[in-house]
């Protein structure tokens, strides 16, 4: 059977020649990336969105004001729901809905952003059956718009310091929600500013003067008909952000606002009418909506990096600049080794982040179904894994996207490239759902506990089984037959294990000298977050390995293995200092890794376009002139620039108002 190579009439010949070189079928590679069912659904829904003009951007969002963006995406999201049954096979499938949304709406936000990502997951995990009936069904049916209001002006990370109060009033069987200070104002919740009419609000539960820590409460914030804030509620937009400006992130304050007792989400923790409090089965079960977003973010961040890689690689095959051999003509910029070294490792990361995203979603689903039965054993593992992945993946994604942007030269800096907006959205991920450094320290906590168990000969969980294995003193990289990469993966394991034990020993030594546990932790915090990063990077490399092993088709496995081996080499070089510290690697082995990496760049080069085609991002989804599938970049850049609002007239008023008088005055002065 001929291989599918994504060639279409009217394509730029340069790209067609590139596509013909592929060693694999792009649709089969797409199936490896997304799963075959989702890959098919994505393809079909993109075609349907193409035909439905009501779902198309009315103009490029780059040329819109914030209010126009909000209005445009509200229009599209409503149209999207109106046509959803004709477009997707299963509207309750989050993945399918997410892809519909990224095709039709893009990534700048819309009024239902947090509704689907946090509000509904919070209700699913924390509302009891009666409450689900009351709010989850209407929320799924779009009868209300919800947000998740946890962060305050004064505190986002340290949830124990949240100040919003929910004081139980036994006499009326109500909670009184109150914002005692300006720092207690809720700050940041997505779609809160102008769109939502309900919020899951985190507030300190106070019964008879005693605080039970923060819990989640359902609060209606706006009238369902007039959309005006309810009495005792102040709400508004927090202003423009780096990106994500079609989302109205908001502020929210309460002045002794009363809600019924049954508005506390009571699946796990409960308060009865006598004010008797029942503890949840796990102290952090109320954090489940955060864990949900952390788990979905991994794959989505991979998609963002995949989008930027697609844009930069396609453009690098259209752009010619300079000669490699004098007189032989200008070359495609992707033929430069430096360009390949800049882009292919990002492409490999995008792949592995998407694979890891799938694994972590499966674990989340398992934990969620366990939680339904009151079983919480795997919650700590999930928290540790998502905390590490969330931090490492967002950090590497935005660093990688910046490489993609720079690899496009000047045109990468233009919004026409599409990279600035997705970079701006992705970089928010380093902060939201737990600031990266803080989340790495959460994982480090787990790792230090794992060390203690290891010393007793036990494992804390599957993720840290490797701590029980003995340390090798020297790496076998370059000492085994060419093409064997087991020692590379072993090096990731070695580096992570060594750093984890090293910092654990250092903590013990400090405490043995009489330092408190907390101060010792502070003294070693940078080393601790390094341990968490190295553990996560080992997890990612091992995940890539598992994926390559699982692929049946020989051609796909070979192309994926090239990316995997590049990933191993590139990431090892990026953290080689850890392997040199204990002479685990020698200088000749580092040279071996480098040379192998350069070899792999050349091997991957002919497959580059098909490896990005395999993401199957539609042009509508990419929203990039540089990344167009057909490669017709220059004529479309010119067309795009002409759309700029500044080109509506040859002379704009500011010229007559400011510059002309200044120049006239200057001329007059020079004539005197
Ligand atoms: C139309 C529609 C289309 C529809 C489509 C629909 C489809 C939709 C599909 C989905 C689409 C998705 C799209 C996404 C991408 C889109 C782009 C943009 C979107 C932007 C959205 C942005 C949303 C962003 C939202 C937000 O940002 S919302 C706010 C997030 N805020 C934070 O994340 C605060 C961080 N801070 C903390 O999480 C805590 O503060 C703290 C540090 C843990 C300490 O917590 P503390 O309570 O102090 O506990 P410790 O004392 O440290 O620990 C004590 C003990 O508890 C343990 N433990 C702590 N935790 C946990 C935990 N979880 N679980 C288990 N254990 C835990 C710890 O291991 C320790 O164990 P031990 O060692 O004792 O054994
Ligand atoms: C785009 C976007 C969307 C958001 N959406 C929502 C939403 O829908 N709902 C919601 O409730 N919130 C939302 N947030 C808020 C977000 O969750 C918080 O901003 C985030 O959790 C970080 O908290 P912070 O702002 O308090 O940062 P801070 O904690 O003030 O971080 C500042 C610095 O202090 C350091 N730091 C803080 N604590 C520690 C510590 N213990 N140890 C070491 N270092 C520390 C951090 O590492 C960081 O370097 C959103 C934020 C963004 C950017």
UniProtKB/TrEMBL annotation:
- Gene Ontology CC entries for this record: peroxisome
A GO molecular function term, named singly, is: FAD binding
- List locations, semicolon-separated: Peroxisome
Pathway connected to this protein: Lipid metabolism; peroxisomal fatty acid beta-oxidation
Q: Where is the Acyl-CoA oxidase C-alpha1 domain?
A: 287-448
Listed Gene3D superfamilies: Acyl-CoA dehydrogenase/oxidase, N-terminal domain (1.10.540.10), Butyryl-CoA Dehydrogenase, subunit A, domain 2 (2.40.110.10), Butyryl-CoA Dehydrogenase, subunit A, domain 3 (1.20.140.10)
Q: Does the keyword Nucleotide-binding apply?
A: yes
- Presence of the UniProt keyword Transmembrane in the record: no
Q: Which residues form the Acyl-CoA oxidase C-terminal domain?
A: 489-663
Residues forming the catalytic site:
433
Q: Kindly list the biological process annotations in GO that this record carries.
A: ascaroside biosynthetic process; fatty acid beta-oxidation using acyl-CoA oxidase; lipid homeostasis
Q: Which PANTHER family match?
A: ELECTRON TRANSPORT OXIDOREDUCTASE (PTHR10909), PEROXISOMAL ACYL-COENZYME A OXIDASE 1 (PTHR10909:SF250)
> What name has this protein been given in UniProt?
Acyl-coenzyme A oxidase
> What is the species of this protein?
Diploscapter pachys
């Amino acid at each position: 059977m001929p291989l599918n190579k994504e060639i279409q009439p009217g394509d730029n010949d340069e790209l067609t020649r590139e596509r013909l070189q592929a060693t694999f079928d792009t649709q089969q590679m797409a199936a490896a990336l997304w799963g075959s069912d989702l890959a098919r659904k994505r393809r079909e829904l993109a075609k349907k969105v193409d035909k439905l003009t009501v779902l198309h951007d009315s103009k490029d969002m780059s040329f819109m004001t914030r209010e126009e963006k909000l209005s445009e995406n509200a229009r599209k999201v409503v149209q999207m729901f109106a046509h959803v049954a004709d477009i997707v096979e299963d509207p309750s499938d989050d993945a399918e809905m997410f892809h519909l949304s990224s095709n039709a709406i893009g990534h700048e936000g819309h009024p239902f952003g947090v509704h689907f990502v946090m509000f509904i997951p919070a209700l699913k995990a924390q509302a009891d059956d009666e409450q689900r009936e009351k709010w989850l069904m209407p929320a799924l049916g779009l009868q209300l718009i919800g947000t998740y209001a946890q962060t305050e002006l004064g505190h986002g990370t340290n949830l124990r310091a949240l100040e919003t109060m929910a004081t139980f009033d036994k006499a009326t069987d109500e909670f009184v929600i109150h914002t005692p200070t300006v720092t207690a104002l809720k700050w940041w919740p997505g779609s809160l500013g102008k769109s939502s009419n309900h919020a899951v609000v985190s507030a300190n539960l106070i019964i008879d003067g005693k605080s039970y820590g923060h819990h989640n409460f359902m609060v209606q914030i706006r009238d369902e008909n007039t959309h005006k804030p309810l009495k005792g509620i102040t709400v508004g937009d927090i202003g423009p952000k780096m990106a994500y400006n079609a989302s109205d992130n908001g502020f929210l304050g309460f002045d002794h606002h009363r809600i019924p007792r049954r508005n506390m989400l009571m699946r796990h923790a409960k308060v009865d009418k006598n004010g008797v409090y029942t503890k949840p089965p796990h102290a952090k079960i109320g954090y489940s909506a955060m864990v949900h977003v952390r788990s979905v973010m991994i794959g989505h961040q991979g998609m963002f990096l995949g989008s930027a890689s697609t844009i930069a690689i396609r453009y690098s095959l259209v752009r010619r600049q300079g000669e490699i051999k004098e007189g032989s003509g200008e070359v495609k910029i992707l033929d430069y080794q430096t360009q390949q070294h800049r882009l292919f490792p990002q492409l490999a990361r995008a792949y592995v982040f998407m694979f890891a995203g799938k694994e972590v979603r499966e674990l989340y689903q398992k934990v969620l179904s366990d939680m339904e039965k009151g079983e919480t054993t795997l919650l700590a593992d999930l928290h540790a894994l998502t905390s590490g992945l969330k931090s490492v993946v967002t950090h590497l994604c935005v660093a990688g996207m910046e490489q993609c942007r720079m690899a496009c030269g000047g045109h990468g800096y233009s919004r026409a490239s599409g990279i600035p907006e997705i970079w701006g959205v992705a970089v928010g991920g380093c902060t939201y759902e737990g600031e990266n450094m803080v989340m790495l320290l959460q994982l480090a906590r787990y790792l230090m506990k794992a060390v203690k168990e290891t010393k007793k000969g036990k494992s804390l969980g599957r993720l840290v089984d490797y701590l029980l294995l003995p340390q090798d003193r020297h790496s076998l990289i370059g000492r085994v037959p060419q093409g064997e990469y087991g020692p590379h993966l072993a090096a990731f394991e070695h580096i992570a294990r060594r750093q984890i034990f090293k910092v654990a020993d250092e903590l013990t030594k400090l405490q043995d000298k009489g330092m408190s546990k907390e101060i010792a932790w502070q003294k070693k915090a940078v080393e601790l977050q390094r341990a968490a990063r190295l553990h996560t990077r080992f997890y990612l490399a091992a995940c890539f390995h598992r994926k390559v092993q699982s692929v049946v088709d020989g051609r796909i496995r070979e192309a994926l293995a090239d990316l995997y081996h590049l990933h191993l080499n590139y990431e090892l070089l990026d953290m080689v200092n850890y392997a040199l510290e204990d002479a685990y690697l020698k200088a000749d082995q580092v040279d071996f890794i480098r040379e192998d990496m350069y070899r792999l760049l050349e091997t991957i080069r002919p497959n580059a376009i098909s490896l990005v085609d395999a993401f199957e991002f539609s042009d509508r989804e990419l929203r990039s002139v540089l990344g167009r599938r057909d490669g017709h970049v220059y004529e479309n850049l010119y067309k795009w620039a002409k759309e700029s609002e500044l080109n509506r007239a040859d002379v704009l008023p500011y010229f007559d108002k400011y510059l002309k008088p200044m120049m006239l005055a200057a001329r007059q002065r020079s004539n005197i």
